Amino acid sequence: MAHLVTEGSKYFMIILFAVYTYECFAVFRRKTGEKREARIFKRQTVYLFLIHMNASILIFAHQKELRYLVFYLAQVVLLAILMFTYSKLYKKTSRLVVNNMCMLLAIGFIILTRLDFDKAMRQFEIAVVAVIITLLVPFFIHKLKFLGKLTWIYAGIGLLMLGIVAVAGATTYGAKLSFSFAGITIQPSEFIKIIFVFFVASMLYESTELKQVIKATVVAVAHVGILVLSKDLGAALIFFVVYLMMLYVATRKIFYLLAGGGLGAVAALICAKIFSHVQVRILAWKDPLSVYDGAGYQVSHSLFAIGSGGWFGMGLYEGMPEKIPVVDQDFVFSAISEELGGIFAICVIIVCCSCFLMFLNISMQIKDRFYKLIALGLGTVYGFQVFLTIGGVTKCIPSTGVTLPLVSYGGSSLLSTLIIFAIIQGLYILRQDEGVYHEKSKNAGKQRKKAVSKAVKTGMAGEQPKQAAEKRPKRDIGKPSGQDIGKRPKQDRRRRQPKGFENDFEDLD
Prior knowledge:
single chain; disordered C terminus; 18 helices
Protein backbone atom coordinates (compact mmCIF):
# COMPACT_ATOMS: atom_id res chain seq x y z
CA MET A 1 0.00 0.00 0.00
CA ALA A 2 2.80 2.41 0.92
CA HIS A 3 4.48 1.70 -2.42
CA LEU A 4 1.26 2.56 -4.31
CA VAL A 5 0.92 5.83 -2.40
CA THR A 6 4.53 6.71 -3.22
CA GLU A 7 3.99 5.92 -6.91
CA GLY A 8 0.83 7.99 -7.11
CA SER A 9 2.35 10.96 -5.28
CA LYS A 10 5.40 11.14 -7.54
CA TYR A 11 3.23 11.31 -10.69
CA PHE A 12 1.05 13.93 -9.03
CA MET A 13 4.09 16.10 -8.26
CA ILE A 14 5.52 15.66 -11.76
CA ILE A 15 2.26 16.79 -13.40
CA LEU A 16 1.89 19.81 -11.12
CA PHE A 17 5.51 20.85 -11.57
CA ALA A 18 5.29 20.44 -15.36
CA VAL A 19 2.22 22.72 -15.47
CA TYR A 20 3.95 25.21 -13.17
CA THR A 21 7.01 25.24 -15.44
CA TYR A 22 4.88 25.72 -18.56
CA GLU A 23 3.19 28.76 -17.01
CA CYS A 24 6.59 30.32 -16.24
CA PHE A 25 6.79 31.04 -19.97
CA ALA A 26 3.07 31.24 -20.81
CA VAL A 27 2.92 34.47 -18.82
CA PHE A 28 5.05 36.19 -21.49
CA ARG A 29 2.51 35.75 -24.27
CA ARG A 30 1.60 38.97 -26.06
CA LYS A 31 -2.12 38.60 -25.42
CA THR A 32 -1.59 38.08 -21.69
CA GLY A 33 -3.13 40.98 -19.79
CA GLU A 34 -2.62 41.98 -16.18
CA LYS A 35 -5.68 40.06 -14.95
CA ARG A 36 -4.62 36.89 -16.75
CA GLU A 37 -1.08 37.26 -15.38
CA ALA A 38 -2.47 37.56 -11.86
CA ARG A 39 -4.49 34.36 -12.35
CA ILE A 40 -1.40 32.52 -13.63
CA PHE A 41 0.65 33.60 -10.63
CA LYS A 42 -2.12 32.50 -8.25
CA ARG A 43 -2.28 29.09 -9.92
CA GLN A 44 1.50 28.79 -9.63
CA THR A 45 1.23 29.49 -5.91
CA VAL A 46 -1.39 26.73 -5.56
CA TYR A 47 0.80 24.26 -7.49
CA LEU A 48 3.78 25.14 -5.31
CA PHE A 49 1.99 24.47 -2.02
CA LEU A 50 0.36 21.28 -3.35
CA ILE A 51 3.75 19.86 -4.41
CA HIS A 52 5.25 20.83 -1.07
CA MET A 53 2.34 19.35 0.89
CA ASN A 54 2.31 16.11 -1.11
CA ALA A 55 6.04 15.50 -0.59
CA SER A 56 5.92 16.45 3.09
CA ILE A 57 3.00 14.12 3.80
CA LEU A 58 4.91 11.31 2.10
CA ILE A 59 8.00 12.05 4.21
CA PHE A 60 5.88 12.07 7.38
CA ALA A 61 4.26 8.76 6.38
CA HIS A 62 7.69 7.14 6.08
CA GLN A 63 9.25 8.65 9.20
CA LYS A 64 6.13 8.66 11.44
CA GLU A 65 7.59 11.35 13.69
CA LEU A 66 5.70 14.49 14.70
CA ARG A 67 8.74 16.72 14.22
CA TYR A 68 8.53 16.21 10.46
CA LEU A 69 4.95 17.49 10.43
CA VAL A 70 5.85 20.49 12.59
CA PHE A 71 8.79 21.23 10.32
CA TYR A 72 6.50 21.14 7.27
CA LEU A 73 4.10 23.65 8.86
CA ALA A 74 7.03 25.95 9.71
CA GLN A 75 8.13 25.84 6.05
CA VAL A 76 4.61 26.73 4.89
CA VAL A 77 4.56 29.72 7.22
CA LEU A 78 7.95 30.92 5.96
CA LEU A 79 7.00 30.62 2.28
CA ALA A 80 3.62 32.28 2.87
CA ILE A 81 5.22 35.18 4.77
CA LEU A 82 7.83 35.59 2.04
CA MET A 83 5.19 35.82 -0.70
CA PHE A 84 2.83 38.03 1.32
CA THR A 85 5.55 40.43 2.45
CA TYR A 86 6.93 40.96 -1.05
CA SER A 87 3.43 41.58 -2.43
CA LYS A 88 2.57 44.10 0.30
CA LEU A 89 5.89 45.91 0.72
CA TYR A 90 6.63 46.18 -3.00
CA LYS A 91 3.57 46.57 -5.20
CA LYS A 92 5.69 46.56 -8.38
CA THR A 93 7.60 43.41 -7.55
CA SER A 94 8.00 40.57 -10.07
CA ARG A 95 5.63 37.81 -8.98
CA LEU A 96 7.32 35.32 -11.29
CA VAL A 97 10.70 35.81 -9.63
CA VAL A 98 9.12 35.47 -6.17
CA ASN A 99 7.26 32.29 -7.17
CA ASN A 100 10.36 30.70 -8.68
CA MET A 101 12.43 31.62 -5.65
CA CYS A 102 9.87 30.00 -3.31
CA MET A 103 9.55 26.93 -5.54
CA LEU A 104 13.30 26.30 -5.51
CA LEU A 105 13.38 26.84 -1.74
CA ALA A 106 10.54 24.34 -1.29
CA ILE A 107 12.29 21.72 -3.45
CA GLY A 108 15.45 22.26 -1.43
CA PHE A 109 13.59 21.72 1.86
CA ILE A 110 11.94 18.57 0.49
CA ILE A 111 15.11 16.87 -0.71
CA LEU A 112 17.21 17.94 2.29
CA THR A 113 14.55 16.67 4.72
CA ARG A 114 14.64 13.37 2.87
CA LEU A 115 18.46 13.19 3.06
CA ASP A 116 19.25 14.62 6.49
CA PHE A 117 16.68 16.14 8.83
CA ASP A 118 19.25 17.99 10.96
CA LYS A 119 20.79 19.67 7.93
CA ALA A 120 17.33 20.56 6.64
CA MET A 121 16.56 22.23 9.98
CA ARG A 122 19.83 24.14 9.82
CA GLN A 123 19.03 25.24 6.27
CA PHE A 124 15.59 26.40 7.39
CA GLU A 125 17.03 28.47 10.24
CA ILE A 126 19.45 30.15 7.85
CA ALA A 127 16.60 30.77 5.42
CA VAL A 128 14.56 32.55 8.11
CA VAL A 129 17.48 34.86 8.93
CA ALA A 130 18.22 35.40 5.23
CA VAL A 131 14.62 36.34 4.46
CA ILE A 132 14.59 38.89 7.29
CA ILE A 133 17.87 40.40 6.06
CA THR A 134 16.97 40.52 2.38
CA LEU A 135 13.44 41.91 2.61
CA LEU A 136 14.80 45.46 2.82
CA VAL A 137 17.35 45.04 0.03
CA PRO A 138 14.92 46.09 -2.78
CA PHE A 139 14.12 49.27 -0.81
CA PHE A 140 17.80 50.20 -0.52
CA ILE A 141 18.46 49.45 -4.20
CA HIS A 142 15.51 51.66 -5.11
CA LYS A 143 16.33 54.57 -2.81
CA LEU A 144 20.14 54.74 -2.54
CA LYS A 145 21.55 56.78 -5.42
CA PHE A 146 25.26 56.66 -4.50
CA LEU A 147 25.89 52.95 -5.09
CA GLY A 148 27.69 53.68 -8.36
CA LYS A 149 30.21 55.94 -6.59
CA LEU A 150 31.68 53.32 -4.22
CA THR A 151 33.93 51.77 -6.85
CA TRP A 152 37.15 51.38 -4.88
CA ILE A 153 35.33 50.52 -1.66
CA TYR A 154 33.90 47.47 -3.45
CA ALA A 155 37.37 46.54 -4.70
CA GLY A 156 38.98 46.99 -1.27
CA ILE A 157 36.39 44.89 0.57
CA GLY A 158 36.56 42.10 -2.00
CA LEU A 159 40.35 41.83 -2.09
CA LEU A 160 40.65 42.10 1.71
CA MET A 161 38.13 39.32 2.39
CA LEU A 162 39.61 37.02 -0.25
CA GLY A 163 43.09 37.68 1.16
CA ILE A 164 41.96 36.70 4.67
CA VAL A 165 40.57 33.41 3.37
CA ALA A 166 43.74 32.72 1.35
CA VAL A 167 45.88 33.21 4.47
CA ALA A 168 43.75 31.90 7.33
CA GLY A 169 40.91 29.99 5.67
CA ALA A 170 39.99 26.38 6.40
CA THR A 171 40.87 23.84 3.70
CA THR A 172 37.98 21.78 2.33
CA TYR A 173 38.49 19.21 -0.44
CA GLY A 174 41.86 20.71 -1.31
CA ALA A 175 40.74 24.35 -1.45
CA LYS A 176 40.65 27.20 1.07
CA LEU A 177 37.00 28.17 1.03
CA SER A 178 35.85 29.44 4.40
CA PHE A 179 36.61 30.52 7.93
CA SER A 180 34.69 30.20 11.17
CA PHE A 181 33.60 33.05 13.41
CA ALA A 182 31.72 32.53 16.69
CA GLY A 183 30.82 29.01 15.63
CA ILE A 184 29.45 30.15 12.25
CA THR A 185 31.19 29.03 9.06
CA ILE A 186 31.26 31.67 6.33
CA GLN A 187 32.33 31.27 2.72
CA PRO A 188 33.22 34.86 1.71
CA SER A 189 33.48 34.20 -2.04
CA GLU A 190 29.68 33.72 -2.14
CA PHE A 191 29.19 37.35 -1.07
CA ILE A 192 32.24 38.86 -2.75
CA LYS A 193 30.92 37.82 -6.16
CA ILE A 194 28.02 40.26 -5.58
CA ILE A 195 30.40 43.02 -4.50
CA PHE A 196 32.58 42.20 -7.50
CA VAL A 197 29.63 42.75 -9.86
CA PHE A 198 29.02 46.18 -8.28
CA PHE A 199 32.71 47.05 -8.70
CA VAL A 200 32.82 46.11 -12.39
CA ALA A 201 29.53 47.91 -13.06
CA SER A 202 30.86 51.08 -11.36
CA MET A 203 34.11 51.02 -13.33
CA LEU A 204 32.50 50.47 -16.71
CA TYR A 205 29.71 52.94 -15.92
CA GLU A 206 32.26 55.73 -15.46
CA SER A 207 34.02 55.02 -18.75
CA THR A 208 34.78 52.29 -21.26
CA GLU A 209 38.00 53.84 -22.55
CA LEU A 210 41.11 51.67 -22.72
CA LYS A 211 42.67 53.21 -19.59
CA GLN A 212 39.56 52.44 -17.52
CA VAL A 213 39.30 48.94 -18.95
CA ILE A 214 42.92 48.25 -17.97
CA LYS A 215 42.24 49.39 -14.38
CA ALA A 216 39.16 47.19 -14.12
CA THR A 217 41.02 44.23 -15.61
CA VAL A 218 43.90 44.54 -13.15
CA VAL A 219 41.54 44.48 -10.16
CA ALA A 220 39.53 41.61 -11.68
CA VAL A 221 42.73 39.61 -12.27
CA ALA A 222 43.68 40.25 -8.63
CA HIS A 223 40.36 38.74 -7.47
CA VAL A 224 40.73 35.72 -9.72
CA GLY A 225 44.41 35.31 -8.81
CA ILE A 226 43.72 35.17 -5.07
CA LEU A 227 40.99 32.58 -5.65
CA VAL A 228 43.38 30.49 -7.75
CA LEU A 229 46.03 30.67 -5.02
CA SER A 230 43.33 29.52 -2.57
CA LYS A 231 42.60 26.67 -5.04
CA ASP A 232 38.95 27.73 -5.16
CA LEU A 233 38.87 27.26 -8.92
CA GLY A 234 35.07 27.04 -9.21
CA ALA A 235 34.65 30.54 -7.77
CA ALA A 236 37.61 31.81 -9.83
CA LEU A 237 35.89 30.58 -12.99
CA ILE A 238 32.64 32.33 -12.05
CA PHE A 239 34.46 35.64 -11.41
CA PHE A 240 36.32 35.36 -14.71
CA VAL A 241 33.23 34.63 -16.83
CA VAL A 242 31.18 37.36 -15.12
CA TYR A 243 33.86 39.98 -15.76
CA LEU A 244 34.28 38.92 -19.37
CA MET A 245 30.54 39.12 -20.10
CA MET A 246 30.12 42.50 -18.40
CA LEU A 247 33.16 43.91 -20.23
CA TYR A 248 31.90 42.71 -23.61
CA VAL A 249 28.38 44.08 -23.11
CA ALA A 250 29.67 47.44 -21.80
CA THR A 251 32.21 48.00 -24.59
CA ARG A 252 30.60 45.95 -27.40
CA LYS A 253 34.07 44.95 -28.60
CA ILE A 254 34.38 41.34 -29.68
CA PHE A 255 38.16 41.61 -29.31
CA TYR A 256 37.88 41.69 -25.50
CA LEU A 257 35.67 38.59 -25.53
CA LEU A 258 37.98 36.60 -27.80
CA ALA A 259 41.18 37.71 -26.06
CA GLY A 260 39.72 36.98 -22.63
CA GLY A 261 38.46 33.58 -23.73
CA GLY A 262 41.88 32.68 -25.14
CA LEU A 263 43.72 33.76 -22.01
CA GLY A 264 41.19 31.89 -19.86
CA ALA A 265 41.76 28.68 -21.82
CA VAL A 266 45.53 29.00 -21.38
CA ALA A 267 45.08 29.66 -17.63
CA ALA A 268 42.83 26.59 -17.33
CA LEU A 269 45.48 24.38 -18.96
CA ILE A 270 48.13 25.73 -16.60
CA CYS A 271 45.93 25.07 -13.55
CA ALA A 272 45.28 21.53 -14.79
CA LYS A 273 49.06 20.93 -14.86
CA ILE A 274 49.79 22.57 -11.50
CA PHE A 275 47.00 21.49 -9.13
CA SER A 276 46.71 17.80 -8.29
CA HIS A 277 43.06 17.96 -7.19
CA VAL A 278 42.17 19.45 -10.60
CA GLN A 279 43.93 16.55 -12.31
CA VAL A 280 41.91 14.13 -10.18
CA ARG A 281 38.63 15.78 -11.19
CA ILE A 282 39.58 15.77 -14.86
CA LEU A 283 40.44 12.07 -14.62
CA ALA A 284 37.08 11.37 -12.96
CA TRP A 285 35.35 13.35 -15.70
CA LYS A 286 37.02 11.51 -18.57
CA ASP A 287 36.37 7.97 -17.33
CA PRO A 288 34.89 7.72 -13.84
CA LEU A 289 34.47 3.93 -13.96
CA SER A 290 38.19 3.43 -14.56
CA VAL A 291 38.90 5.06 -11.20
CA TYR A 292 35.71 3.90 -9.50
CA ASP A 293 37.41 3.07 -6.19
CA GLY A 294 39.00 6.50 -6.00
CA ALA A 295 38.42 9.76 -7.82
CA GLY A 296 35.54 8.45 -9.93
CA TYR A 297 33.41 7.11 -7.06
CA GLN A 298 31.29 10.25 -6.62
CA VAL A 299 30.67 10.90 -10.31
CA SER A 300 29.95 7.22 -10.98
CA HIS A 301 27.27 7.04 -8.28
CA SER A 302 25.83 10.31 -9.52
CA LEU A 303 25.38 8.79 -12.97
CA PHE A 304 23.96 5.58 -11.43
CA ALA A 305 21.40 7.66 -9.52
CA ILE A 306 20.32 9.66 -12.57
CA GLY A 307 20.05 6.48 -14.66
CA SER A 308 18.13 4.60 -11.97
CA GLY A 309 15.56 7.38 -11.62
CA GLY A 310 14.63 7.39 -15.30
CA TRP A 311 11.96 9.81 -16.46
CA PHE A 312 9.55 9.39 -13.53
CA GLY A 313 11.85 8.62 -10.60
CA MET A 314 11.79 5.91 -8.01
CA GLY A 315 9.80 7.91 -5.48
CA LEU A 316 10.86 9.43 -2.17
CA TYR A 317 12.71 6.91 0.06
CA GLU A 318 12.78 4.38 -2.79
CA GLY A 319 16.25 5.30 -4.07
CA MET A 320 19.74 5.33 -2.56
CA PRO A 321 20.98 8.93 -2.94
CA GLU A 322 22.96 8.63 0.31
CA LYS A 323 25.47 6.48 -1.61
CA ILE A 324 26.73 9.67 -3.29
CA PRO A 325 29.34 11.53 -1.19
CA VAL A 326 28.39 15.14 -0.36
CA VAL A 327 25.02 14.54 -2.04
CA ASP A 328 23.30 17.36 -0.13
CA GLN A 329 25.66 19.99 -1.55
CA ASP A 330 27.39 19.53 -4.91
CA PHE A 331 25.31 16.53 -6.09
CA VAL A 332 21.81 17.36 -4.85
CA PHE A 333 20.59 17.39 -8.47
CA SER A 334 21.42 13.67 -8.70
CA ALA A 335 19.24 12.91 -5.67
CA ILE A 336 16.36 14.87 -7.23
CA SER A 337 16.76 12.96 -10.51
CA GLU A 338 16.82 9.56 -8.78
CA GLU A 339 13.79 9.89 -6.54
CA LEU A 340 11.65 12.57 -8.22
CA GLY A 341 12.51 11.68 -11.81
CA GLY A 342 14.16 13.06 -14.92
CA ILE A 343 11.08 15.09 -15.90
CA PHE A 344 11.02 16.74 -12.49
CA ALA A 345 14.76 17.43 -12.72
CA ILE A 346 14.38 18.95 -16.19
CA CYS A 347 11.63 21.19 -14.82
CA VAL A 348 14.07 22.33 -12.13
CA ILE A 349 16.53 23.30 -14.88
CA ILE A 350 13.80 25.14 -16.82
CA VAL A 351 12.71 27.08 -13.72
CA CYS A 352 16.34 28.11 -13.17
CA CYS A 353 16.50 29.16 -16.84
CA SER A 354 13.30 31.16 -16.32
CA CYS A 355 15.00 33.08 -13.49
CA PHE A 356 18.10 33.64 -15.62
CA LEU A 357 16.06 34.94 -18.58
CA MET A 358 14.10 37.22 -16.26
CA PHE A 359 17.38 38.70 -14.98
CA LEU A 360 18.54 39.33 -18.56
CA ASN A 361 15.16 40.79 -19.50
CA ILE A 362 15.46 43.32 -16.69
CA SER A 363 19.01 44.12 -17.80
CA MET A 364 17.88 44.79 -21.37
CA GLN A 365 14.92 46.96 -20.43
CA ILE A 366 16.35 49.11 -17.65
CA LYS A 367 17.73 52.41 -18.98
CA ASP A 368 20.34 53.32 -16.36
CA ARG A 369 23.59 51.73 -17.55
CA PHE A 370 24.95 51.12 -14.05
CA TYR A 371 21.91 49.10 -13.01
CA LYS A 372 21.80 47.45 -16.44
CA LEU A 373 25.31 46.08 -15.88
CA ILE A 374 24.44 44.95 -12.36
CA ALA A 375 21.43 42.95 -13.59
CA LEU A 376 23.59 41.41 -16.32
CA GLY A 377 26.38 40.53 -13.88
CA LEU A 378 24.11 38.98 -11.26
CA GLY A 379 22.22 37.08 -13.95
CA THR A 380 25.51 35.70 -15.25
CA VAL A 381 26.57 34.70 -11.73
CA TYR A 382 23.33 32.80 -11.19
CA GLY A 383 23.08 31.20 -14.62
CA PHE A 384 26.71 30.12 -14.80
CA GLN A 385 26.59 28.65 -11.30
CA VAL A 386 23.57 26.54 -12.27
CA PHE A 387 25.43 25.40 -15.39
CA LEU A 388 28.55 24.41 -13.41
CA THR A 389 26.52 22.44 -10.86
CA ILE A 390 24.33 20.49 -13.27
CA GLY A 391 27.18 20.06 -15.77
CA GLY A 392 29.36 18.54 -13.07
CA VAL A 393 26.84 15.97 -11.80
CA THR A 394 25.91 14.86 -15.33
CA LYS A 395 29.58 14.55 -16.45
CA CYS A 396 29.24 17.23 -19.11
CA ILE A 397 32.14 19.11 -17.49
CA PRO A 398 34.56 18.32 -14.63
CA SER A 399 33.04 18.81 -11.20
CA THR A 400 33.80 22.26 -9.75
CA GLY A 401 32.33 21.90 -6.27
CA VAL A 402 29.69 24.58 -6.87
CA THR A 403 26.26 24.28 -5.20
CA LEU A 404 22.84 24.52 -6.86
CA PRO A 405 21.41 27.92 -5.77
CA LEU A 406 18.51 27.79 -3.25
CA VAL A 407 18.38 23.97 -3.42
CA SER A 408 21.73 22.66 -2.13
CA TYR A 409 22.69 22.71 1.52
CA GLY A 410 24.88 25.67 2.46
CA GLY A 411 24.20 28.79 4.48
CA SER A 412 26.49 31.18 2.61
CA SER A 413 25.17 30.05 -0.76
CA LEU A 414 21.55 30.38 0.38
CA LEU A 415 22.01 33.86 1.84
CA SER A 416 23.99 35.19 -1.14
CA THR A 417 21.43 33.84 -3.62
CA LEU A 418 18.53 35.42 -1.72
CA ILE A 419 20.45 38.71 -1.76
CA ILE A 420 20.87 38.38 -5.54
CA PHE A 421 17.13 37.79 -5.99
CA ALA A 422 16.34 40.75 -3.72
CA ILE A 423 18.66 43.04 -5.70
CA ILE A 424 16.97 41.90 -8.91
CA GLN A 425 13.61 42.77 -7.39
CA GLY A 426 14.90 46.25 -6.59
CA LEU A 427 16.09 46.66 -10.18
CA TYR A 428 12.72 45.42 -11.45
CA ILE A 429 11.00 48.13 -9.40
CA LEU A 430 13.40 50.72 -10.83
CA ARG A 431 12.55 49.55 -14.33
CA GLN A 432 8.84 49.86 -13.58
CA ASP A 433 9.39 53.42 -12.31
CA GLU A 434 11.30 54.28 -15.48
CA GLY A 435 8.38 52.98 -17.54
CA VAL A 436 5.87 55.09 -15.60
CA TYR A 437 8.06 58.19 -15.94
CA HIS A 438 8.49 57.60 -19.68
CA GLU A 439 4.73 57.16 -20.13
CA LYS A 440 3.99 60.38 -18.22
CA SER A 441 6.57 62.28 -20.27
CA LYS A 442 5.09 60.88 -23.46
CA ASN A 443 1.56 61.90 -22.49
CA ALA A 444 2.76 65.35 -21.43
CA GLY A 445 4.49 65.74 -24.79
CA LYS A 446 1.33 64.80 -26.65
CA GLN A 447 -0.76 67.27 -24.65
CA ARG A 448 1.76 70.02 -25.25
CA LYS A 449 1.83 69.25 -28.96
CA LYS A 450 -1.97 69.44 -29.13
CA ALA A 451 -1.97 72.73 -27.21
CA VAL A 452 0.61 74.27 -29.54
CA SER A 453 -1.23 73.04 -32.64
CA LYS A 454 -4.43 74.58 -31.33
CA ALA A 455 -2.60 77.82 -30.62
CA VAL A 456 -1.26 77.87 -34.17
CA LYS A 457 -4.73 77.42 -35.62
CA THR A 458 -6.22 80.22 -33.51
CA GLY A 459 -3.38 82.62 -34.24
CA MET A 460 -1.97 82.72 -30.69
CA ALA A 461 1.22 80.69 -31.19
CA GLY A 462 4.34 82.12 -29.62
CA GLU A 463 2.51 84.78 -27.62
CA GLN A 464 2.10 85.18 -23.94
CA PRO A 465 -1.39 84.52 -22.54
CA LYS A 466 -1.91 88.21 -21.77
CA GLN A 467 -0.87 89.32 -25.25
CA ALA A 468 -3.05 86.66 -26.82
CA ALA A 469 -6.01 87.82 -24.78
CA GLU A 470 -5.47 91.39 -25.91
CA LYS A 471 -5.43 90.33 -29.57
CA ARG A 472 -8.48 88.12 -29.24
CA PRO A 473 -11.51 89.86 -30.83
CA LYS A 474 -13.93 91.35 -28.33
CA ARG A 475 -17.54 90.33 -28.60
CA ASP A 476 -20.20 93.03 -28.69
CA ILE A 477 -23.05 92.10 -26.41
CA GLY A 478 -25.41 94.42 -28.20
CA LYS A 479 -27.00 93.83 -31.55
CA PRO A 480 -24.56 93.87 -34.40
CA SER A 481 -25.02 96.51 -37.06
CA GLY A 482 -25.50 95.54 -40.67
CA GLN A 483 -22.02 96.78 -41.51
CA ASP A 484 -20.45 94.48 -38.95
CA ILE A 485 -22.25 91.32 -39.99
CA GLY A 486 -20.04 88.99 -41.99
CA LYS A 487 -16.93 91.04 -41.38
CA ARG A 488 -13.90 89.33 -39.94
CA PRO A 489 -12.18 91.29 -37.17
CA LYS A 490 -8.77 92.56 -38.14
CA GLN A 491 -7.18 91.09 -35.04
CA ASP A 492 -8.47 87.59 -35.89
CA ARG A 493 -6.68 87.30 -39.19
CA ARG A 494 -4.82 84.02 -39.23
CA ARG A 495 -1.06 84.32 -39.29
CA ARG A 496 1.06 82.42 -41.68
CA GLN A 497 2.74 79.49 -40.00
CA PRO A 498 6.52 79.91 -39.93
CA LYS A 499 8.39 77.54 -42.20
CA GLY A 500 9.66 74.50 -40.34
CA PHE A 501 7.57 75.30 -37.26
CA GLU A 502 6.10 71.83 -37.08
CA ASN A 503 9.58 70.29 -36.75
CA ASP A 504 10.02 71.83 -33.31
CA PHE A 505 7.73 69.19 -31.82
CA GLU A 506 8.98 66.04 -33.43
CA ASP A 507 10.92 65.01 -30.31
CA LEU A 508 8.15 65.60 -27.82
CA ASP A 509 7.16 61.92 -27.94
